[in-house]
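thought: fold this chain, then report.
action: predict
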Amino acid sequence: MTVSVVIVDDHPVFVAGMRAVLDEFDDIEVVAVAGDGEEAVAVATEHRPDVVLMDLRMPGTDGLAATARIRTALPGTRVLVLTMDEDADSVFAALRVGANGYLLKEADSDAVHRAVQSVARGEGVFGPRVAEHVMSFFASGGSSSGSTAFPQLTQREREVLELLARGLDNASIARRLVLSPKTVRNRVSDVLAKLHAGTRAEAVAMARDAGLGDPA
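observation:
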């Protein structure tokens, strides 16, 4: 079957190269590209692709937040992470927000092709070194040593969540972190998306359950 794909990455040269690679395969059609998480969500909503090839680290809304929003809004669209990050925290953070596969950017063209087709069929796909993390996780009884609460959040997002859990409003958070109110609103939205929290109150409850903030 022909698989429709959206490529998401903030490096135009990489996007052009990956598009050229995928265009070599008759059973894959690149329908759009995006340069950041917000654009990824908009493009995916418009085209409803079979697979989104998602980078993790991008300015603004990152790949984790975009993945969470796409998987929630478009259950039929699969997300294959294609990144340079091979650490266990990044792998499990991506899986927690709904990624269906995880490859490193060093993968060759045939590996990417096979992964796209496999993910489109509903299979989970992991590159060799990524698979080692997953196997170690289950071998250890399902615990990931060294991981902290909410590893899917960036450091700034964790700071915002901590202050939310302390009961601060957006204006107070903006003053405390020396950020603009708009930036705080965006970070709060990203936190809610990554935690799959429907409301601020739900995110605060999750944070306090994990030991963040001061419920008093």
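thought: worth noting. The two ends are 56 Å apart (CA to CA).
final: tokens above.
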